[in-house]
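My main concern about presentation is that the manuscript never shows what a single data entry looks like. An entry of this sort, consisting of the sequence and the corresponding backbone structure tokens, reads as follows:
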Amino acid sequence: MRLSTRSRYGVRMMFEFALKFNQGPVFLKEVATMQGISFKYLSKLVIPLKSAGLLQSVRGANGGYMLAKPPSEITIRMIVETLEGDVTLVECAENPNVCNRNVDCVARTIWKKADEAIMHVLEGITLQDMVEEYKRSSGSIYEI
């Protein structure tokens, strides 16, 4: 399985908003600059994240975007599933009807277990965990 650029950049963008949580709205251009990602690309990612209730926008001169929930309540799985949809190693793990061998396929059981393990890991990591790891590893002065 390989996550798309949407998920990888989406997690980086959300991490940047988590670093600035409780500091008011942040301009998307600032996030793009800090993360080295195209503003145009990020502007496409905010739409589904807003719809999912993970981001909120503020209009006006001091507007921008900010997390709609505390970083401790947003998991990496939430971000990935919002941007990717169902994430699975092979289609038959989620939808057994795509294969005529689904009844007696031992490999399908393995793929399902692998999917569950991946989702468990992504569910167990929050944006707050990322912020804390960043602060430990970089000696960052960011206050959360």
